[in-house]
Inverse folding.
């Protein structure tokens, strides 16, 4: 399905019945990484899985900024008139979720996995790899990751959604920053997933669906 947002076409798939859940993928991916999770969630949630701008079947763009992508999500919620939303974001989707939740009162529950506040929140050897990838490919999606985000504590403190902060114990995100996010968002819960890396419990996995369902049930 297509939503016309900010002069772009955003592709999304809508599956299930029940409470509203919006799912946001990471950099260079698309909505299909959540196919297995949706199988777990569709009995309890109406799942809206969106391709971010410049990803999947959404409109291409020349450059990327997290604030623009967060505005796309907010405008999508407005366009669809979705309220009491549970928003789940993985990696870049988690960054987008943090920014959107600080500005949008339609988001009731926020769950993020492997999000960072600034480029320094990514472990050094991964930052070095991303720079090398950009030198060879000049992909603006890669450039985004070592230029942004720049999320301040003031933004985190504006989030009023019930929040769960997730990361793998072997994540590419510095654990100190993950803990800081959870400590700064009012009332947020933190879970470090033992033995997991950045996407091992998320990409084409049911485990993240179980975590979302369990968090929203209490």
């Amino acid at each position: 399905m297509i939503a016309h947002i900010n002069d772009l076409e955003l592709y999304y798939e809508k599956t299930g019945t029940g409470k509203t859940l919006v799912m946001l993928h990471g950099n260079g991916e698309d909505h299909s990484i959540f196919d297995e999770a949706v199988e777990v969630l569709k009995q309890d949630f109406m799942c809206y899985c969106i391709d971010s701008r410049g990803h999947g079947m959404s409109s291409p763009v020349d450059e990327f900024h997290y604030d623009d992508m967060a505005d796309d999500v907010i405008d999508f919620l407005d366009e669809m008139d979705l309220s009491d939303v549970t928003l789940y974001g993985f990696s870049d989707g988690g960054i987008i979720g943090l920014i959107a939740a600080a500005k949008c009162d339609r988001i009731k529950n926020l769950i993020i996995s492997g999000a960072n506040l600034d480029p320094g929140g990514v472990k050094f050897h991964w930052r070095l790899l991303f720079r090398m990838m950009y030198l060879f490919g000049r992909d603006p999606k890669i450039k985004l990751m070592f230029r942004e985000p720049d999320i301040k504590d003031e933004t985190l403190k504006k989030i009023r959604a019930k929040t769960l902060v997730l990361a793998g114990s072997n994540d590419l995100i510095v654990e100190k920053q993950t803990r800081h996010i959870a400590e700064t968002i009012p009332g947020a819960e933190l879970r470090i997933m033992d033995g997991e890396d950045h996407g091992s419990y998320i990409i084409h996995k049911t485990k993240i669906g179980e975590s979302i369902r369990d968090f929203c049930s209490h």
Remarks:
- The radius of gyration is 16 Å.
- The CA atoms of residues 114 and 167 lie 5 Å apart.
- The longest helix spans residues 66-80.
